[in-house]
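Pilot study result, target chain (89 residues):
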Amino acid sequence: MLNHTICQRTTKVKLQGEEAEILLRLRTGNFTEIIIELKNGKVKRLKLSEEVSEKKLVELLKEHDFQDIQLTQRDGNIISVKRTIIDKL
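Predicted structure:
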């Protein structure tokens, strides 16, 4: 578990567990969208979407156990690949 303190003006907020993990993902990832799912006020799951380069589909599938992969094809050519990684916290 991560524990961090964020200073904003004169107010300090101590982050624990899932909160710190979410902020770490925001700062270190190159995501186009982050969805935070809550259950009873607690973070249950993160969905992290990113544009990925054209790789072999098998390589993408092996990288994460829980993910959605969206391919967009026009005139027989792949023009974009979007992956949403799903993490349970």
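One observation from the pilot: The beta strands are 3-8, 11-16, 33-39, 42-52, 67-74, 77-88. A full batch analysis is planned for the follow-on phase.
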